[in-house]
Amino acid sequence: MRANPMPVIIIQMTTIGKLTTRKLTISGILITLGLILPFLTGQISGIGNMLLPMHLPVLLAGFVVGAPLGLLIGFMLPLLRHLLFGIPSLYPTAIAMAFELASYGFLTGSLYRLLPRKTVFIYLNLILAMVIGRLVWGIVSAVLYAFSGTTFTWKLFFTAGFINAIPGLIVQIVVIPLIVLALRKANLIENE
User: Fold this and answer.
1) Which pLDDT score, from 0 to 100, does residue 2 have?
2) Contact 61, 30 (CB under 8 A)
3) Is residue 139 situated within a structural domain?
4) Which of 22, 76, 81, 95 has its CA 20 to 30 A from that of 4?
5) Is the pLDDT of residue 146 over 60?
6) Range(s) of the domain holding residue 181
7) Confidence check: pLDDT of 14 > 50
């Protein structure tokens, strides 16, 4: 009687599927957070929208699930939020944010894999991703504004991209490294 090869196949698929399932589950949680957090921070009068709530789960995504999924989560989150809730407005806000957040997810994931595992490099990674992401947002916004016949000025870029975003940028610099360090300590971030 021949031995059934099925158990070997199941074990191999389970091992491969576990990693994929884990990353997809975490991705789903981060997308959900990105959809819900703006409702919670919107209740804080005066600075609620300045806290950049969609940015937090996307920046974390790169660290936790890697660059490809971080890019995907970042790109789809503002577009999905627009489709589900009508905010942010699709043109130009959600489209420009899609490129900005995609760059956040991609950069934090890529830099986390490339840089040494010291705490200082988490901050360096985060700050580089935030600056480059803002530049991407500015470039895409300028192109979109040009298509609509409106001028995207340097003043608008610095005001919307940096000055009005100071509370959110501070939250990101304080909270993201703490979460990444806690997840790393709990072995919930892979050291690829």
Assistant:
1) 52
2) yes
3) yes
4) 22
5) yes
6) 6-185
7) no
